[in-house]
Amino acid sequence: MTTIGVFALQGDVREHLHTLESLGVRALGIRRPSELDDCDALVLPGGESTTMAKLARTFELLEPLRERVRGGMPVLGTCAGMILLADRVLDGAEGQETIGGLDATVRRNAFGRQVDSFETDLDFAGLDDPVHAVFIRAPWVEEVGPGVEVLATAHDHPVAVRQGNILATSFHPEVNGEDRVHRLLLDMAPR
Ligand code: GLN
């Protein structure tokens, strides 16, 4: 059975586990490197990217995560998870580390105070109906490398992108019963 890991040191882990289980796959919270070995694909949840990166470093997960993502494991990052996948971060904390792999520059807390948190319907490449997207102190993508496909935009900036095995959204598909983004991840995972 396909096993999808959810980075579980911090963030909205439960919502992702729930969405994945509803799609009929085995979903596993990941806190240590040995658990990562069991995964066919991975989700990096929303949360606080600086804390997630620090905990990943402390629990010796950061390097194994980098290796697996570089090695082609399918991965979905939502919100803070998108920041963790970015090769370059703007408005990060000093010395903020990432897993990287996504050839993009991502700006943290990009939508500013007025629209700090908001919901909207987005056209999403490859999906017939719009995606209802919940943004919570979300990042946006400021610049992408040539290999990055933009799947959705908001406020004139990419908010969903894909590059090979990496899928990332600024918003939280896991919080409102939207499962089509997770399905895209499953389509990328070996069966
Ligand atoms: N602002 C958070 C960060 O920088 C992300 C917010 C979220 O994941 N909802 O990590």
The low-pLDDT segments are none
Described by the principal axes of the CA atoms, the overall outline is globular
| Strand content bin | 25-35%
- CATH class type: Alpha Beta
Number of domains: 1
Rg to the nearest angstrom?
15 Å
Helix percentage:
25-40%
The helix/strand order is EHEHEHHEHEEEEEEEEH
Q: What gap, in angstroms, lies between the N and C termini?
A: 7 Å
Q: Please outline the major beta sheet.
A: 7 strands, mixed
Biggest sheet, spatial arrangement of strands: 2-1-3-4-12-11-10
Bound molecules: glutamine
Topology-level CATH name: Rossmann fold
Q: What's the CATH H-level superfamily name? A: Class I glutamine amidotransferase (GATase) domain
CATH architecture: 3-Layer(aba) Sandwich
- Structural classification: alpha/beta
The average pLDDT is: 96
List the helices and strands and how they pair.
Blueprint: E1 3-7, H1 13-22, E2 26-30, H2 33-37, E3 41-44, H3 49-58, H4 62-70, E4 75-78, H5 80-85, E5 86-90, E6 102-107, E7 117-122, E8 131-136, E9 140-144, E10 149-154, E11 157-163, E12 166-169, H6 180-188
The structure holds glutamine.
